[in-house]
Amino acid sequence: MPKLILIGGILDLGFMKAPLLAADPRLDITVWPEDDGAEAEIAVCWRPPAGLLGTMPKLKLVQSIAAGVDGVLNDAGLDPALPVARIVDDSLPAAMSEFVLWSVLWFHRGLDQVVLRDRPAIIWQRPPQQAAADRRIGVLGLGEIGGRVARALSAQGFAVAGWSRSPRSLPGIAGHHGPEGLDALLAESEILVNLLPLTPRTRGILGAATFAKLPRGAAVINVGRGEHLVPEDLIAALDSGHLRGAVLDVFAAEPLDPAHPLWTHPRVLVTPHMAAIASDGAVIGQIVENAWRVACGRPPLNPVERGRGY
Ligand code: NDP
Ligand code: OXD
């Protein structure tokens, strides 16, 4: 079996050793930093320290334990020809659809006005209500997860538009694509949901220029990556009244610094990167399957297209 090393930059992945060995006792597993990875052939990673993978000369596969691969692809020393695989699991779009639906309802039903942290507690006042069909939602990213979320919102009756890099045709979803398609989507989005992967093109996309193109009173839900958001631009847009509120699940540095102003902003809900968590069975199963594939010289499950960056 190929030598497998567990690497977590901000999280010790040593806890995965026992379930991996339970799934297949023949696996040869070490944990970074006790092992420096000089002999490792498969690196199983969550946000490895920058530059580390480039120091492991025998790697045949980099396996992300997450759906997002930004944390491994931003390693300048990574051989461009090295295969990278991610987790694709049906539990992710299902869980993400629940989380986004809840966040959308928070704004759509005006709960953000009823449960505001900066208002006196005892006020009997109904916020205005409108039909789901009249609520326009824009979803950035129509991939494995974003596409399913867009369809779940549409099935709930919302007017949904989506944005992707290449043209995507999803039943009931108004499709936009490419840089030239973004402004049209933003102009129509009362609630903007971000489910893009983090790449050089999407970093900082939730910033002042994007917010200015949203209708006044729009809300933002960020479940992609923290680096998509420019926090000071969000706070400025909220404080000016241009944006109504935000639900934020992901942050550039996690856990979010206790002193960060987003924690206490009255129009922001912070959640701890919980929107969608792949089942242990899927993560362990895909790692074991890919270890065998490497052993047999076969391509991995769920490979990432290195050239496009996601
Ligand atoms: P996919 O790779 O399947 O889909 C990505 C989508 O984004 C595709 O539709 C793609 O377009 C589009 N896209 C990529 N780059 C651009 C661009 N420059 N302009 C326009 N559209 C672009 O990703 P998933 O749906 O599986 O996951 C999305 C992200 O969700 C992950 O990368 C991760 O960051 C995040 N995530 C967050 C979780 C959480 O708990 N908060 C849990 C799981 C994932 P095209 O269709 O043309 O390829
Ligand atoms: C993922 C995540 O990418 O947990 O899977 O964010």
What can you tell me about this protein's structure?
The strands form 2 sheets. The chain has a 7-stranded parallel β-sheet. A 5-stranded parallel β-sheet has the order 2-1-3-4-5. By secondary structure, it is of the alpha/beta class. The protein starts with a strand and ends in a 15-residue tail after the last helix. The chain has helices at 17-23, 70-73, 91-108, 111-114, 146-155, 178-187, 208-213, 231-239, 261-264, 280-295; strands spanning 3-8, 28-31, 42-46, 61-64, 84-85, 136-140, 159-164, 174-177, 191-194, 218-222, 243-248, 268-270. 40% of the residues are buried. Oxalic acid binds next to loops.
Short description:
By secondary structure, the chain is an alpha/beta fold. 28% of the residues lie in helices and 17% in strands. The protein is elongated and about 65 Å long.
> For the largest beta sheet, what order do the strands appear in spatially?
8-7-6-9-10-11-12
C-alpha geometry: elongated
Strand content is: 15-25%
Order of helices and strands: EHEEEHEHHEHEEHEHEHEHEH
Count of discrete alpha- or pi-helical segments spanning 4 or more residues = 10
* Class from helix and strand fractions: alpha/beta
Rg, nearest Å? 21 Å
Strand count, sense and closure of the main sheet?
7 strands, parallel
Low-confidence stretches: none
Helicity range: 25-40%
Catalogue the ligands. NADPH dihydro-nicotinamide-adenine-dinucleotide phosphate, oxalic acid
Distance between the termini: 28 Å
Tally the beta strands.
12
